[in-house]
Amino acid sequence: MSRFKKILKWSLLSILGLAIALFAFGYWFIGLIPRPDPNFDVKETLAESLPYLSENPIPNRGKILAVVTSTDEMGNSGKATGYELTELSRAYYVFLANGFEVDVASPKGGNPPRIDDDEDMGVYDFAFLNDPVAQQKAKNTLPIATVDPADYQAIYFVGGKGAMYDFPDNPHIQSIVSSYFQSGKVIGAVCHGPAALVNVTLDGGQYMLKDRTVSSFTNTEELFLIPDAATIFPFLLEDKLVENGAKFKEGTMYLENVIQDGNIVTGQNPWSTWKLAETMISQMGYEPKIREITPEENAIKVLGSFQDQGYQAAKKRITEMAENKLEMNRTLLAMHSIVAAMQWNVLKSFQLVGLLSHAKAATEG
Length: 365
Fold this sequence. Notes:
Layout: H1 3-31, H2 51-54, E1 62-67, E2 83-84, H3 85-97, E3 100-106, E4 114-115, H4 123-129, H5 132-139, E5 142-143, E6 154-157, H6 163-166, H7 171-183, E7 186-190, E8 213-214, H8 219-225, H9 229-232, H10 237-243, E9 247-248, E10 258-261, E11 264-267, H11 273-283, H12 295-309, H13 311-323, H14 330-342, H15 346-364
Parallel strand pairs: 1-3, 1-6, 2-4, 3-5, 6-7, 7-11, 8-9
Antiparallel strand pairs: 10-11
């Protein structure tokens, strides 16, 4: 056999071996992620069956206005957009559980476009879809121009990439936010929701955000998902916030990060929604109602321990959660390991896979 044929043979064998190894790893990796419960019926997930909402009801304390985007396309890109379901549903139920009625408004009113991320859906999100009152509000939103700001104790801007187009220059949004800020009412915004704040000016003419510490979906998070975001969107949100005077506080990529500066409460991404809504409740002068922490939040806690304290601390936290029968969303760990791999951070990716494996062993025995 010629030298060339030997090289070709061993090259093909090496490629075949690598392919088999990758297939075996992929099969094992998928096995670490729990499969959907075949007995779970989305239609049977009802708000009234959730203890957080049904037990120890709090008397009415007033109303909060949630605002969603009316935009259904990212510029002229052909990419669909809308408001993020999880960023509305979870805040909606925090507000409701804490004694506040919630109205939903949008720039155009009516039935706004909605984005559902199936991998992030939990019981509160399914309950929202099965809640006739919530659905009536979400599918028949109030035109923001018709809203009386005096009717509400706070305003909350839901994220979704569509907010980048119809929030920043809406005069009714600007008027309400400016009025609320100067009167001390609470203003909350998550992910792309802070686009509502970028161009708001005060009675003196200066930008409301000048010297205010805020967060939002970061440039890093945006460009990782959409490399050409700078050409699709009218601006990058982090850049615009800073340009108009804000002090931007960036947290870890795709982990919870909530920033409060006076009566402005902002969250970096969808995983910040629970804490942001409860921070708004606190800023309004109330102790947030105790609720069971969700499996997704427990996964965020593990990822936070890993980021801040390292692999062993995160592993210990997983063990403690399993011992206390606390559910954890392993899919979120898997997602972060994939993100690390896509960033060519091989060590981090393998450590996260190790945590994922440990979580399965600790949970399933």
